[in-house]
Amino acid sequence: MTKVRAIFFDFDGVLTLDATGSKTTCRYLSKVTGLPFDEVMKAYRSFNDQLQLGNKSHADIWEELGAMLHGKLEERHLIESFDSTPMNMDMLALARELKEQGYMLGIITDNKKDRMHYLYTLHRLDHIFDTTIISAEVGSNKQHRQIFDIALESLQVEPYGSVFIDNKESNLIVPRKLGMAGIYHLTERTMWNRFDRSYIR
Description:
Strand content: 5-15%
Radius of gyration: 17 Å
Order of helices and strands: EHHHHHHEHEHHEHEH
Low-confidence stretches: 197-201
Helix content: 40-55%
Shape: elongated
Structural class: alpha/beta
Number of helices: 11
Largest sheet: 5 strands, parallel
Oligomer: single chain
């Protein structure tokens, strides 16, 4: 068995407690605007693909989104929605443990560039992770191999020497085809129970 050198984590749903960043953002916007969550999510999702592939930023869509939400959005609500992201402290502790054991760590995420940059700085993720690959920066999501090729290249590791952890099984199809070990994350406990220790001996 090839020895694992690098372990890649998804962000939302693995390193955070919400399954998606959109859920986090829209829950907060629903709270501050008083509008139903489903209405906010429907409006926000109309921009989601453009945001995740880097074709637009939140600044580009904020005025239009605000109009769709009856003029109740304010500029400050964007950063406040980022701040509301519930981090998974147990998984971050696991990442630190693996880092101390000598493994290279990375994040591969379908996400918005401005949100990830803000949270990366806020939570000092550069102290834990050696690389972070964001769909909005590379123009590719986890349904295609490009984002994984870029991640592997950034750490100079082969697919068979790496692991990818994600909370959505469909996101494990491509990396597994490339030869990466894929782990389906439900909770930090089930993830660790399913993480074969023989990978990291």
